[in-house]
Specification:
Number of strands: 14
Number of domains: 2
Number of helices: 11
CATH topology of the largest domain: Rossmann fold
Largest sheet: 6 strands, parallel
Shape: globular
Helix content: 40-55%
CATH architecture of the largest domain: 3-Layer(aba) Sandwich
Length: 356
């Protein structure tokens, strides 16, 4: 009898162990599968994903999403497509659709008309435009950034740094988005110059596109030759021409007499590395206004995977929700403190930055 009781007890214990083991095994119905089925294509503009700007930031966000969810890069999970010409935007979007991607993300407002057209023609697919406001369609989302807020801080930084009392801004092309950069920058410079009791001149010029580095170089060179010593570039890939012009000038000068560039979209510090006259290594990227497209893309990828694609909505990112920021870079400690104070006042609504 005692033997039978022990045997029965052993059977019960074994059964409990097996049940516990079964419960502890991961279920294949978990959100991991949803994320594996969430096929996302990122369509850059013609400058590609290594532009040290918005395209690269957006792609980094999609890669972060893939890495965190153990998804392989490629056409069965997530990938990128680069049009060779603006005329090929629609063809490139269609190529991604033909490969059965469920969510299409277009980077930059130049893709907006094509993404809207694709969204209307493909109601069962999800579409996103980065850096643009979009109409209310159930399968379309716009992600925009408060460019004027970051540009205001760039204006504060430029005004506290300039020695020549002349600063400049080089824009990609004429648009509402670019106007926000210009307006914010000028407002930041003027507010700071008023505090400093100085007259600081702002010069501005537009390249006409986001890929003509030669034209941007010539514009910046002319500005520097007319005593501008800080230029804020908001010109996408064209902005590399501004960095090139600054490097040419700085290489012929002692390190203490450099001209500066303020970067945009990503931290562009490495683009400012150079050797000053005499061979001394230095850097002329004063600071960078960062537009966190990476965080926005990763966020929307996660929402979509969880069945919560924010269709019909326009999501806005600014200083308050950390979608816009400015790095300390080569700013003096005094200037950095002033920038932080201006940032807090914008967040609290004590400074209202105009878009136009």
């Amino acid at each position: 009898m005692k033997l039978n009781k022990k045997f029965n007890l052993l059977l019960i214990t074994s059964a409990i162990f097996l049940m516990a083991s079964a419960c502890s095994k991961p279920s294949h119905e978990e959100p991991t599968n949803k994320k594996a089925d969430n096929h996302i294509a990122l369509i850059s503009d013609i400058n590609g994903i290594k532009d040290n700007s918005l395209n690269q930031s957006a792609w980094n966000g999609l890669k972060d999403y893939g890495t965190k969810n153990d998804l392989p890069e490629g056409n069965k999970s997530y990938n990128y497509f680069v049009p060779k010409d603006p005329k090929n935007y629609q063809t490139t979007i269609n190529e991604a659709l033909d490969k059965n991607f469920s969510t299409i993300i277009g980077v930059g407002y130049t893709l907006k008309p094509n993404i809207i057209k694709a969204a209307k023609n493909n109601p069962k697919k999800n579409f996103v435009v980065i850096d643009a406001h979009t109409p209310k369609l159930k399968n379309l989302t716009g992600i925009s950034f408060k460019n004027q807020e970051g540009a205001y801080l760039a204006g504060v930084a430029a005004a506290y740094t300039t020695k020549s009392q002349t600063v400049g801004i080089v824009l990609g092309q004429n648009s509402k988005e670019m106007t926000a950069f210009k307006s914010g920058f000028i407002q930041g410079v003027r507010a700071t110059s008023h505090k400093l009791h100085r007259h600081i001149k702002v010069v501005s010029q537009t390249v006409g596109n986001f890929s003509d580095t030669n034209k941007a170089h010539d514009i910046a060179q002319e500005m520097y030759n007319k005593k501008t010593d800080v230029i804020f570039q908001a010109a996408g890939k064209s902005g590399r021409g501004v960095f090139k012009a600054a490097e040419e000038i700085n290489q012929a000068r002692p390190v203490g007499q450099k001209v500066w560039v303020i970067g945009s979209d990503e931290d562009q510090a490495k683009l400012g590395d150079y050797l000053a006259k005499g061979g001394q290594p230095s850097n002329f990227t004063l600071t960078s206004v960062i537009k966190s497209a990476d965080l926005a893309v990763e966020d929307i990828a996660n929402q979509t995977a969880n069945g919560k694609f924010p269709g019909g909505k326009n999501l806005s990112y600014g200083l308050k929700n950390k979608g816009i920021s400015l790095v300390q870079g080569n700013l003096s400690y005094h200037t950095w403190i002033k920038v932080q104070k201006a940032k807090q006042k914008i967040i609290e609504g004590k400074i209202k930055v105009e878009k136009d």
